[in-house]
Fold this sequence. Notes:
By secondary structure, this protein is an alpha/beta fold. The protein folds into 2 domains: about 10-125 and about 195-260, Rossmann fold (3-Layer(aba) Sandwich), CATH 3.40.50.1820; about 130-175, no CATH class. About 35% of the residues lie in helices and about 15% in strands. The chain contains 10 helices and 8 strands. The strands form 2 sheets. A 6-stranded parallel sheet has the order 2-1-3-4-7-8, with helices on both faces. A two-stranded antiparallel sheet has the order 5-6. The radius of gyration is 17 Å and the shape is globular. The two termini are about 20 Å apart.
Amino acid sequence: MYSGPAADAPVVLCLHGLMRNSRDFGDLATHLAARYRVIAPDIRGRGFSDRDRNFNNYTIPVYLQDVGALLAGLGVTSVSIVGTSMGGLMAMVLAATEPPLVARIVLNDVGPEVDPAGLARIRGYAGKTAPVKSWAEATAQVRALYGAAWPGLPDSRWEEIVRLSYRANAAGLLEVDADPLISEPLKDWKAVAPDLWPLWKSLGAPILAIRGATSDILSVSTLERMKREKPDLRTLTAANRGHTPLLDEPECLAAIDEFLAAGA
């Protein structure tokens, strides 16, 4: 939770990606907290949230139940959502099922259709990253997975990302801060990447779609169809980014600021 200027400040809910955690939003949340009350939860099985003994609960419907309970417990009745990858899928479903709750949506490199090539890539590593003994080894793992998506990052930024992504396990080894069993539902394509085109045009909340220029999850053709079917869609392509933009890029921060301010 990042406190806003007042208890009644507009609420921004940040939802992270599949094998990520809420710490991905640290820079963005700190930036937004001057004007908004920012809520960035760890989705079930990640970060500080409990691991689930039943991996069948690692699905979007269950995650949305968790988010609904969180918001109800906090007394929140209206949110703008920043959703990265899986978090964006959650945002679209929530906007379709609870329209009064969702005021605005920022989709970070995801749309109603997930590119099969990108999903295959994620399937290839999700839940399979072996624990390591040192931060140097962890950094090498992260660079191997995301180097193409984030070219040109300084070493210090890579090290920061790694320390936000890993934790020490009981054996003292460093491991990704997410339950490896989260990857099990990936075997069911539709459970992980549902076809959301049927609800896309029905979404009433204003939407800003950010795409990494080299993304293999949100294709150019999908983004173009999104614009055709929802002419009021706002878009931004983040240069030198794949899946996903980090949302600390100046152009991303400026676009998000302008978009959220329009609804404040």
